[in-house]
Every structure is written in C-alpha cells, then in structure tokens.
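PT: before anyone asks, these are the final sequences, not the draft ones from last week. 650 residues across everything. Please model them as a single complex and drop the result in this thread when it's through.
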Amino acid sequence: MHILVIGGAGMVGRKLIERLARDGRLGDTAITRLTAHDVVPPKLPQAPFETDARVSDISVPGAAAALVAERPDVIFHLAAIVSGEAEADFEKGSRINLDGTRHVFDAVRLIEGYAPRLVFTSSIAVFGAPFPEAIPDEFFHTPLTSYGTQKAIGELLLSDYTRRGFFDGIGIRLPTICVRPGAPNKAASGFFSGIIREPLAGQEAILPVSESVMHWHASPRAAVGFLLHAATIDGRQVGTRRNLTMPGLAVTVGEQIEALRQVAGDKAVARIKRVPDPVIEGIVAGWPRKFDAKRASSLGFVAETSFEEIIRIHIEDELGGRIAD
Amino acid sequence: MHILVIGGAGMVGRKLIERLARDGRLGDTAITRLTAHDVVPPKLPQAPFETDARVSDISVPGAAAALVAERPDVIFHLAAIVSGEAEADFEKGSRINLDGTRHVFDAVRLIEGYAPRLVFTSSIAVFGAPFPEAIPDEFFHTPLTSYGTQKAIGELLLSDYTRRGFFDGIGIRLPTICVRPGAPNKAASGFFSGIIREPLAGQEAILPVSESVMHWHASPRAAVGFLLHAATIDGRQVGTRRNLTMPGLAVTVGEQIEALRQVAGDKAVARIKRVPDPVIEGIVAGWPRKFDAKRASSLGFVAETSFEEIIRIHIEDELGGRIAD
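LR: through. Structure below.
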C-alpha cells in the first residue's frame, strides 16, 4: 500500500507519519511506500517501507496532478494555511485552502478508474456562534473566519466528489489539539496548550481568559487515531454524509488547571499567570465549546475522556515521561 | 440607482426586470439605470430608466470584472446552470456555478471602496435527505447534487465576503417555483407545475408520482418579491447569517389537485393523467418537503399561504385572467 500525506511537515502530519513508520501497516494492510509532501521538506522517520519527500505548492496548477500521478492507495490531505494567517491574508488562504484543496480533489478526479480513500482534515471552525449548549451533528455551518469558510467548502466538495465516485472521501473536523507541542505561538487558542505545556516544562504561562471558558479538546495522539480510523473505515458504514465532527473533551480552563494540579501538583499550577486580555476573551467567545459528536463515536472514533489523560499523553509523548520539578 | 441583473434572461430574471421596469424604483429609491446580463441576449422591457443588455460568460476570467466595473449599486446574481444539467455535465456546472459565482464575488471584492448589496439566489437543493419533518433554519447542508453543492459553496463565500466587508450580501434559498410558465421541460420537478399549467391551458398533463408527495412551493411573483425584499432589507437586521430559506407553502400533490378543482373545476382536473414513474418518484423522495422558515418570515419575506392563491397568480400573470374551457 502506497500512502500520500499532503501537508506532512505540520505537527499532525509529522505525528501521523511517525505512527505509520512505527506500525508499518495501515489497518490490516502492510505499507510498502509513503510519500510525504509539503511546501517545506517534511522530515522522514526511519521506516520499514520506502519513503520519499516531495516539496511543492498545491495551489500551483499541475502540482497536485504530479503528486497523485502514481495513484497512491490512500491520500491524507492535511495541508492548510492556519486560521490566523488565512484571516490576515485572504488571498493566500483562498489560494491554498480553497484552490489547493480543489486542485488535489480534481487531480484525483481526472485519473480514469482511480478512486482512492481520501482523508481530509476539516475543523470545528466551520461552526460559528451563536451555538446551542452542545452542537449536534446536524447543526449548520456558519463559519466566522475565512479559514472556517474554506474548510466548509472543502467538506462540500469532498461529499460531492465521493457521491460521484471520483474518490472515497472522509472529512474529519478536528477538535482543538491539546497539548500542542513546541514553542508558544501567537494563535488566539495558544493558551489552551500553553497553560499545561509551559508549567510542565518549568516555565511560566499566561492565561488571558477566565477559568469559566469551555473548549473542545483532543490530544495529538487522538488526532492521529482519528486519521488512521478515517483511512480504514468502511465507507458504506459512513453513508452519504462524509464529514464528521470528531469526538473530544469539553472542559473549562478551570478544569484544565485542576487536572494539571492532579498530575503535576500545586507547584506547576503556580506557574500560570493570569493576565486578562479582552481581545482574546472576545475571540474565544465566538468559538464552539462543546459538541454532541454521536455519529463519529458510533462509527468508532475515540478521544480522551479526561483532561488528566490528555496531560499524561503529553508527558509520555513529548517529555519522555518527565516533568519539571 | 444602477441595478445589475446577472442571469437576466432566465425566468426569474426576466420577471424581476419586468417588475423593476413597472415600479421604476427599488424600495424608496428611483432606478436610473438597469443592466441586464446573460449568456444569451436578455429581453429589455419598456422602462422609465436607461436599460442596457450585456452578453458574456461569467466563467471566463475578466467577464465579471467588466460587468461590475461601473459599480452598480445593487447586483442580483441569478445566473446558474440548473440542477439536471449540472448533474449531467459536472465540469460545466462547476465552471458556471462555482467559478462563475466566485468570479462575480471577486470582481466586486477587488474594486476598492465598493461594497454593493449583492443578492444571490441559492436553492433548497443545498439540503439532502434524510430530513426532519419540517427542516429548521439551523439544519445542516448535505446536498445530494452537484448543483446543490455549488449553491452551498456560493452561500459560504457570500457570508465570508460580507463579513469581510467586500460586499453586503444576502443569499436566498428559493422554493420550487410553481406555477412555472412556458413549455413543459424534462426537469424531474416539472410535473409540479405541469399538472396545473397544462390543464388550465386545456392540455393533458402527466403525473408521475403519487398524490401523497409533499413539496415546497412559491409563485414566480413571490420569488420576485423575495428578491426585491432581499435587495432593500437592512443588513444589520439580518446579522452575520446571511443565507435564508425563503418561506413557501408545503402541499401534497393531492392538495395541489384539489386546489385546481376549486379554481378551475373537475374538467381541468380530468386532464391530469396518472403515469407512475418509479425513477421520478425516487428522485423526488430525496427532496425537501417542508421547511420551518422562521427567520425569513420574521425578516419580512412573504410567500403564498394557499395553493389556490398560487394558481390564481398564474392565471393573472400568465393567462391574462382566462382559463381554458
């Protein structure tokens, strides 16, 4: 089996590729080759199969066709300009998130007799406030960002291309990934990870919102699990509605902090510094808090059920099991 | 006020232009000029303002920019490849309904300091079965046709372009227009109009489905009313959710026939010939039957409340008040 990962240099792509290299198989099928693609050279791990890296820009006509010409059996399309950047640079976001996705989908469509499984990462940003208390599977898409708009368009195209038999698509709306490894970034959502990651590393973290703010989380490990399950699930079981809100964990910032206390003690919690930021508080107020992700759960997608578990996964996967004293 | 109607040669476009010519104004503002556009020359009625016709293909780069260069104050974008054709010719539907709409939106976006009211006709085809008994305003979009997919994408772009201030958009999802004037066509939905139009004209009509089939209707006159209201409504009142399911009338085929009997007697009803067609029955089974269009109603959009009224409008507007004996 030949797997193509478009957007393989991003955090989720990298973790997916590492997992595939470790497993050597996808579901019951041995992997013979993995092609990792991105606009920057993706890192290739040691793997029990052939690996190759490709660098190109999927928004450039022809690039996507070159990528899929060898007919990979499974395509993961994870490439995207993130929310903040797509909002700041409308044309860039449209070019990559909308045109780029369409180029990938059309490149597959135009190969006669080829209909691979294609897994597309969408986002809970397809939803926009006001929301019911828990957003049901049949709630409509009224994104309040260009990123969310572009992802929602990708979902619609994925469904239609699947219905027409151009490929066999599954779109998954990822929760906010927490604890996101790496350096703090300027994303408005950064603090959700920062208030856990920094204290565990002995650093101070800034909390810009009140403890009552609730949000929807899953670990990077769960995200990779979603991708693998989406790549192997029987399409007939999914039916015609091919885009799914992934399960996650709805917790308040206060509950995140209490979980940190359980796992790492008062000393870690004391490293969280409250610096209210009305701008971030305002942005976050428009975000989804909680979903009732019945369909994905019934289809076998699994997320964490406690925030302690999410913190322990970070300690295992990123900190080698050790936390700062 | 200068008005541009893109897709002005279609049935709804033609009726809109006739109404504007008759009124001489849009809301409280006198019309000084109307530009009617289509791929074929649109008919221009006598009007108390300047009129001009333009012929071009909005899917061709540059065509949309040429159309909006004179900065019309209000743009109606009605142009589309219809459902059946967009399904039969995927590339043509994508080119006109998706690229063409994006070209129109982008042409407006790229004019500095220009943010006209832009009214976009979407469709109840953005919805796909299975449905709740009455589809609420917050129900999600899972179109089962490429046409519905392309319209849903237009809605998403319209919302985002409005949010960003590129224009001031309102998207309206039209019910099935009934009674559709003109010759019978091969659309699967054609019989909803045919079983009224043909008997009133003394002709035989074919009914391919059972009388229990329910569908969502509004007259051509109501459709024009929706467009005028969408063009003049205060955007602040609409808020960020810019796409609205228009009100309509949910009636069964049996109720349509009884209304015909009330208006035109048993002789007209006797001209309906039952010829069951399992293919059409199957297609229609996937269509929306009924909506709970609360938002549009509360915003002042008004449709007919009885099917007799819909029939009488056809007799007045298309038959000069006379029905066949």
